Amino acid sequence: MSNAPTQNILEAGRWIDAQGWCPATGGNFSQRTGDAEALITASGRHKGRLEPQDLLRVDLAGRALDSELTPSAETLLHCCLYRLDPEIGAVLHTHSVNSTVLSRLTAGDWLRIEGFEMQKSLRGNRTHDETVEIAVFDNTQDMQALAAAVEARWRDAPLRWGLLVRGHGLYAWGRDMDEARRHLEGLEFLFACTMDMKRLGATP
Fold first, then answer.
1. 57 contacts: CB under 8 Å, gap ≥ 6
2. What is the CATH number of the domain that holds 156?
3. Half-sphere exposure (Cβ direction) of 20: Cα atoms closer than 13 Å
4. pTM
5. Residue among 104, 113, 93 nearest 189 (CA)
6. Which one, of 40, 37, 73, 75, lies nearest residue 56 by Cα?
7. If you average pLDDT over residues 143-164, what whole number do you get?
8. Among 42-46, 123-127, 187-191, which range has the highest average pLDDT?
9. Do β-strands 28-34 and 90-94 pair in parallel, antiparallel, or remain unpaired?
C-alpha cells in the first residue's frame, strides 16, 4: 500500500465499498498528515467512487484548510481521536449491517467478545482467551456531545481498535492505514460471528 494519504483513502474506499460496509454515501475515512492536521473525505461522497478532489485537509478542530469542500459532521469525532492518541494515524468510519444491528442489540456501554481466533487480528491480542471490549455510545446528531462522551470514557481507560455508535456504525483506527484496515476487517468478522451466534440462539 502506498504511503500517500490520498491514495490510501481512495483504495480504502473502494475496498470498503466492495464489502458493502458503506452503502449510499455513508461513512467517512481519514489519515493523519501531520501533528495538527488530517486528510478526510468530504460530506456526501460515495466511498466506492472517491477521487482526489473528494478529499480535504482539516485541522484537529475539524476546520477545513484551504478548501471550499464541506467536512462531514463526523469529522469532529475523527479529530477527537487524533487528539486523544498521537499514535492514531488513520480512522475508518463504516455503516455495515452487522455493526449497526449489533450495536443496537448490545445493552450497556461495552460489547464484549471472546473465544474467536480472529481476535488476534487486533493489535496487542495474542490469544482467543482474552476478552475484546468495544465501547458503545448512544447515537446523537450533536457530534460535539458525542466527541465529549468519547473523551470522557477515554480518560478512564484509552479505547483500543474501535468504537460503536448505537444504530449508526463502527469507527476503527490504527497507527497507519494498513493497521486501520486490518482492525476494521477483524472487527467486522468478529461482529458477523457474534450476530450469527445470536441468530442461532447461542450465547456468544
1. 33, 37, 38, 39, 40, 64, 65, 66, 67
2. 3.40.225.10
3. 4
4. 0.94
5. 113
6. 40
7. 95
8. 187-191
9. antiparallel
Please give the average per-residue pLDDT across 122-146, as a whole number. Answer: 90
Can you give the length of the chain in residues? 204
| 149: Cβ contacts below 8 Å, ≥ 6 apart | 137, 138
Q: pLDDT-derived band of residue 5, with 50, 70 and 90 as boundaries?
A: very high
Domain that holds residue 96: 5-199
The string of pLDDT tens digits covering residues 23-49 is: 998 899 999 999 999 999 998 899 999
Query: Which residues, in sequence order, are bridge partners of residue 92?
Result: 29, 172
Number of helical (H) and strand (E) elements in the chain, helices listed first: 5, 9
- Give domain status of residue 161, yes or no: yes
Q: What angle do CA 195, 41, 26 make, to 5 degrees?
A: 35
The angle formed by the CA atoms of residues 76, 99 and 165, to the nearest 5 degrees, is 35
Separation between Cα atoms, residue 64 and residue 32, nearest integer Å = 14
Instruction: Say if 30 falls within a structural domain.
Output: yes
Is 43 inside a domain boundary?
yes
Within-domain flag for 204 = no
Q: Reply yes or no on whether the pLDDT at 107 is more than 60.
A: yes
Q: What's the structural domain count of the chain? A: 1
Per the model's pLDDT, the better-predicted residue between 64 and 204 turns out to be 64
In angstroms, the CA 92 to CA 111 distance is 19
